Amino acid sequence: MRSLRTEELILNMGPQHPSTHGVLRLLVTLDGENIVEVQPDIGYLHSSVEKMMEHRNYTQNIALADRGMDYLAALVNEMAILRAAETLADVPVPERARYIRTIFMELQRLASHLLWLGTYGIDLGAFTAFLWCMRERELIMDLFEAATGGRLHHVYFRLGGVNEDLPPGWTDRCREFCHYFLNRLDEYHRLLTGNPIWQARTQGVGVLTREQAIAFGACGPVARASGLQWDVRKSHPYEVYDRVDFQVPVYTEGDCYARYLVRMDEMRESTRIILQCLDQMPDGEVRAARVPLNLKVPPGEVYTRVESPRGDLGIHLVSTGGETPWRVKIRAPSFVNLHALTEMMKGWKVADIIAILGSIDIVLADVDR
Amino acid sequence: MSSGGPEVTRMVRVPADGSREAPIEQLVEVLHRLPGGQILVTSIENVLNWARARSIWPLTFGLACCAMEMMQAMGTRFDLDRFGVIPRATPRQADLIIVAGRCTIKMAPVVRRLWEQMPEPKYVISMGSCATCGGPFYYDNYSILKGIDTVIPVDVYVPGCPPRPEALIEGVLKLQEKIQRERRLTRRLQEAGA
């Protein structure tokens, strides 16, 4: 009997694809149904943010960081760019503002993870998850809107504090939401965690070992699902993260299911952080006096990092003493996780592309900047 | 046409490229010739527009931040489905493309091709400042397109950065109004000189 002659097929996926979470193009080399190689083609959302930041002062850059970088974690981006500028210029930040910033960054993490869970649910055919997650996300949007005026792009943090104090009754609403959300989180677990279809699609799929995670520089939930104990909030605490008690969830399996569990646990921990911050938050000023809007940052360079919902977000800022940065380099977590994706996908079936791609929670604005 | 036979006046116009018209359009052309048929044509057109306006199926296509608000609009609280807006994953089944977010110069040919792949009648909503004019990426920027209307024709512009889901719903309602006012059949008949 003659053996069947086969050849490799190159499949183009994207940039318009309902499951690419943006405009990612994947060139997938297939041998039958097995993935031989995956080559991401990025740049479809390149917004030249790093260049634009050189022409705007630090206050204007806050608004740009909201939009141009990872748009699902706008407040964390604001924090990243501000942390670099404040470190270099040595700007004092009042205590209350530090707590408010922490609360908002954790709310942002909840919102981002909820959106991830919803869209991942759609990717794997669980539409209910999307509807439930959107329901809770709207409540977070309401909290954001009450305090910052914006739903997605807030421009709330300022050099030396935040724009304005929380509106009356906001802390009670936030606390109420946290307790409500913890119950809903149990509901998600009942819907998905034990679900046989969900487990079949995610367990053991797209494994990234600990060594590979380190080699690729993976960060955030992707690294923590591979057994890497790495969280900037713990290792390089900023704002008030060293004053609150929280765990960093770590799983060793390295598959999609572990990444899902890491994010689910992170949501619980974020809620705990918010509740603690609400209890500890002192009264007082929310914005340092005499910090001009067009602050001149002294010459020098600094690398600071924050933990965005997708991982380790670093800013390398070089200043020559002007009102605008001389150079801003953004170390985007999605970009490195996308690199690790190429390794995760090798050897899996074509139907697993969506499950693996969804599990790293990619945001293309973060990849391309 | 060198068949040599007598010139046959066709009741049904067949386009030069040989593509067949939809049966409803053939029927309309016949009706139009009847006495008082104009009223019938207008009525049929109204019914068609009513159906089109209330089943606008958009392409599942998000570019940037505005796509998040688009998802929220499809989601639980705002529930765009109740206006007949059901997202489709392929341009072949879509009537509407919501350009949600900034479009880069690299992405522009892709958007154009997606729009070309959609069957007529097709509509475009430009959602947000970036899609409308480049928005915050207008100055000092080398990669973002200054408005999606340089690539594809836009029917409704929704302002905002990003627009709230309510704003997108308003945009869809405006598009529904626009579709309801359309006179596609009448215009076709006039163009054909019928």
Task: Show the largest interface.
Answer: A-B, 37 and 35 residues
Beta-strand residue percentage of chain B: 5-15%
Low-confidence stretches of chain B: 1-12
User: What does the average pLDDT of chain A come to?
Assistant: 88
Helix content of chain B: 40-55%
Number of E-type strands of chain B: 3
Shape of chain A: globular
**Structural class by helix and strand composition of chain B:** mainly alpha
The number of helical segments of chain A is 14
Main β-sheet, spatial strand arrangement of chain A: 1-2-3
Feature tags:
heterodimer; A: 369 residues; alpha+beta; 3-stranded antiparallel beta sheet; 14 helices; 8 strands; B: 194 residues; mainly alpha; 3-stranded parallel beta sheet; 7 helices; 3 strands; elongated; disordered N terminus
What this model shows, in words?
- The complex is a heterodimer of chains A (369) and B (194).
- In chain A, 49% of the residues lie in helices and 13% in strands.
- Chain A has 369 residues and is an alpha+beta fold.
- In chain A, strands 1-2-3 form a 3-stranded antiparallel sheet. In chain A, strands 6-7-8 form a 3-stranded antiparallel sheet. In chain A, strands 4-5 form a two-stranded antiparallel ribbon.
- In chain A, 53% of the residues are buried.
- The mean pLDDT of chain A is 88.
- Chain B is mainly α and 194 residues long.
- Chain B is built from 7 helices and 3 strands.
- Chain B starts with 22 loop residues before the first helix and ends with a helix.
- In chain B, helix 4 links the parallel strand 1 (96-100) and strand 2.
- Chain B has a 3-stranded parallel sheet with strand order 1-2-3.
- At the A-B interface, helix 2, helix 4 and helix 5 of A face helix 3 of B.
